Amino acid sequence: MFSRAIVKKPSESMINGLTTAGLGKPDYNLALKQHKNYVTTLENCGLEIIELQADENFPDSTFVEDVALITPRCAIITNPGAISRRGETAEMREVILGLFSSVEQILSPGTVDAGDIMMVGSHYYIGLSERTNSAGSNQMIEILQSYGMTGSTIKLNQGLHLKTGVAYLENNNLAASGEFIKAPEFQEFNILEITEDEGYAANCIWVNNQVLIPAGFPKTRDTFSRVGYAVIEINVSEFQKLDGGLSCLSLRF
Questions:
Q1: Pick from 115, 164, 180, 107: which is nearest to 140 by CA?
Q2: Of 52, 53, 173, 225, which one has the greatest count of Cβ atoms within 10 A?
């Protein structure tokens, strides 16, 4: 169960954020409303929110998930794969140091976006992507092992991050789309298949026995409802324009 979450308000500069989505520029005012609703939803799920102020120097910094991994035994500041995002770690490090006694850091030439890391119990699946390289994943696994946890890698052939296409929803249930549906690494799980036309909905999050999904994906909603989840839909259209999703917008712990 989670008790807290770190979030960060979107900056006006988000309209110039990194993207491959081809969906146009985000509407900043609408993004603010959507972010506020996202935060309220997390609060309604029982989380205490630590909200950081917007930083105009970093257009993508509302996607706090990528710059830190929080585990039950330590916090790890990452080294983002996009050079324009590496400065985001300085503020996050100060925040994390105020919350955790054990804080580690990924160092160059290693790169890691924590959007490439999926926690399943004490094991962490790490996607090798354009943003997370082998040097970074090796460092991450060494850190995890030093705290009594484990990690393994999975190569991405498509998608920005591992959690773009897969999400662990507890109870051995794994939401998966695209290449991950048949991935050998995940066949021990009960696969909840996300259809190709609703692939964006694979970036969903389990929060204290509820599953948050992006609005507008009825087949995914029905799939999760059928296996007993309470499903909450949230409109994050303006963040989708920046390749971002529900998991990207918070650090939950």
A1: 107
A2: 173
The whole-number pLDDT of residue 223 equals: 98
Task: Indicate which residues carry an active-site annotation.
Answer: 161, 248
Instruction: Check: CB of residue 170 under 8 Å from CB of residue 142.
Output: no
Cα separation of 92 and 98, whole Å? 10
State both tokens at 210: 């509820």
- Dihedral of the CA atoms 23, 56, 129, 20 (nearest 10)? 20
Stretches where the chain sits below pLDDT 50 are none
Distant-in-sequence contacts of 175-183, Cβ < 8 A, 24+ apart: 175/201, 175/202, 175/204, 175/220, 175/224, 176/202, 177/201, 177/202, 178/202, 183/154
Class of domain 4-14+22-252: alpha beta
Cα atoms in the 13 Å half-sphere on the side-chain side of 134? 1
**What tokens does 128 get?**
């090798």
Specify which residues 124 forms β-bridges with: 119, 151
Contacts of 67 (CB under 8 A, 6+ apart): 77, 78, 80, 85, 88, 89, 92, 114
* Distance between CA atoms of residues 51 and 250, nearest Å: 10
Looking only at the bridges linking them, the beta strands covering 75-77 and 103-105 are parallel
103, two tokens: 């804080």
How far does Cα 3 stand from its chain's mean position? 17
Q: Where are the domains of the chain?
A: 4-14+22-252
